[in-house]
Specification:
- With 467 residues, this protein is of the alpha/beta class.
- Helix content is 39%, strand content 25%.
- Strands 7, 10, 11, 12, 13, 14, 15, 16, 17, 18 and 19 form an 11-stranded mixed β-sheet that branches. The protein has a 6-stranded parallel β-sheet with strand order 3-2-1-4-5-6, with helices on both faces. A two-stranded antiparallel ribbon has the order 8-9.
- Helix 7 packs parallel to helix 10.
- The longest helix has 30 residues.
- The protein is globular and about 70 Å long.
């Protein structure tokens, strides 16, 4: 009898241990991130998967209509899987059909949806994905007009109610020159106080030049024809400017909540065309004709794309200007470029990325007018020591009597494509924490208020100029 009871007890302990082990495994699987890619019409969707991530399943569920956009996306993922250095092991499980969105919501195969494609229905897709209690990582822009903006505000309410996270992909926060510009602006001995600026002389300026025809992951980029339709892609003033507006907030007001009702005043906004020839359109899309939906933008067989825009606005009393220009392609050795200046009472922090910089972004510190240059040079050397410790290898070189260049080791220059991995890693940490920083949501709302309100103002003007 004693032997039987001991055996019975041992059996119970064994079963209990087995059950607890199963529960642990289930919990581990429950914590695993399973990606869903929704209608990947933009190459940014693939860049999210350029690297593998711990605790993210290799199985990725793709829902999209049949066509070139899906094929191009899958080719990029296949190239990542087959590369010699650090190959990925993604297994794309694809559903093709016009009911792709309904199928995605009903099957709910994953817990994070990556959305990067046609922007016409993007905000609506986000809303219904959040209603299905699925997290969303969305490429910018997530709102391309004032109607979308109103819907976006509802999206954040739905996300909060359903305990899921909505986040937009802000890659430019991870560019080293931008990071260091932000860091230097926080060192009062170097930067002083942020100047307020005026309409004629904004105290923060960010300008971006982009190109329709370029290379991605070493290959010529094939763009969908709808990319040239502003009703589907969005006008330039609400597209790339999203990054620039985000950087103004992120650099000048780090970790500070922006209330768009109180802190933002749009002063002026403008938009203008870039003209694309039929041959250029064919080169970048592969189509030797203009689809019907583009005919309203065609004059004398030339496509006019409202891809350029500028916004001048005040944010917490600081006057800022952001602008974006699209050209067809870049010169040999070139690429997309960025210009930025932040004006402080002691110095200006300037990012240049032109021919002189070999189209590589470089950061400069320019002493403000009236500053004693000898005294400033000594202060600069002493005050930058903290940044040097944080970013080993950073150094200073005097290039003009009043200007110093920040020398940045190549190890920090990971490139634009790698920034998508960094954004994704950051988002995965937010998922693990179960929340975004307190300032992220109100500042996203402020950002899209600025861009969509600026579009409304610019469209209210009668004429557009041409690039």
């Amino acid at each position: 009898m004693i032997t039987y009871n001991l055996n019975k007890m041992a059996m119970l302990i064994s079963v209990t241990f087995l059950l607890s082990s199963c529960n642990f495994t289930d919990n581990k699987k429950a914590d695993e991130i399973k990606l869903i890619t929704l209608d990947p019409g933009h190459f940014h969707a693939a860049l999210v998967q350029k690297k593998s991530y711990p605790n993210v399943s290799n199985n990725v569920y793709v829902y999209a209509p049949e066509g070139d956009e899906l094929d191009e996306h899958l080719k990029k993922i296949e190239a990542y899987n087959n590369r010699l250095e650090s190959p990925t092991q993604w297994n794309e499980i694809v559903y093709k059909g016009n009911d792709f969105f309904e199928k995605m919501v009903s099957e709910k195969k994953g817990n994070v949806v990556v959305i990067a494609g046609n922007n016409r229905k993007k905000t609506e897709y986000i809303q219904n994905t959040l209603r299905a209690k699925i997290n969303v990582l969305a490429d910018k822009p997530v709102a391309i007009n004032t109607s979308n903006f109103k819907l976006l505000k509802e999206c954040f309410d739905i996300a909060k109610e359903n305990n899921v996270l909505l986040y937009d992909v802000m890659t430019e926060r991870y560019e080293i020159t931008t990071i260091l510009q932000r860091e230097l602006s926080l060192v009062s001995d170097i930067y002083g106080k942020q100047l307020e600026g005026t309409l004629q002389e904004p105290s923060i300026i960010k300008e971006s030049v982009h190109h329709f025809y370029k290379e991605v992951s070493g290959n010529p980029l094939k763009r969908p024809a709808w990319f040239f339709d502003v009703e589907q892609e969005g006008e330039g003033i609400v597209d790339v400017t999203t990054h620039l507006v985000d950087l103004v907030q992120w650099e000048a007001f780090p970790d500070i909540i922006i209330d768009y009702n109180k802190d933002i005043e749009i002063i002026d906004a403008n938009r203008w065309f870039t003209s694309i020839s039929k041959g250029q359109f064919e080169q970048v899309t592969g189509l030797d004709y203009y689809p019907d939906y583009l005919h309203k933008h065609i004059v004398n067989d030339t496509l006019n794309v409202s891809s350029n825009g500028e916004i001048i606005y005040k944010i917490k009393g600081i006057t800022a200007k952001v602008s974006v220009t699209w050209e067809y392609t870049y010169p040999k050795g070139g690429g997309d470029t960025h210009y930025s200046i932040m004006k402080g009472s002691k110095s200006n922090l300037i990012i240049l990325q032109g021919k002189e910089q070999k189209y590589k972004p470089e950061l400069f510190i320019e002493a403000a007018k009236g500053i004693n240059l000898i005294s400033f040079a000594e202060t600069l050397e002493n005050s930058i020591s903290g940044i040097k410790k944080k970013y080993p290898g950073i150094s200073l070189t005097k290039v003009l009597d009043n200007t110093w260049q920040i020398n940045i080791p190549d190890s920090y220059r990971v490139g634009h494509e790698a920034h998508f991995t960094q954004v994704t890693e950051n988002y995965l940490q937010y998922l693990k924490d179960g929340k975004l920083p307190d300032w992220e949501v109100p500042n996203m709302i402020a950002k899209y208020y600025i861009t969509t309100k600026a579009l409304e103002i610019a469209k209210g003007k009668q004429s557009q100029k041409h690039e």
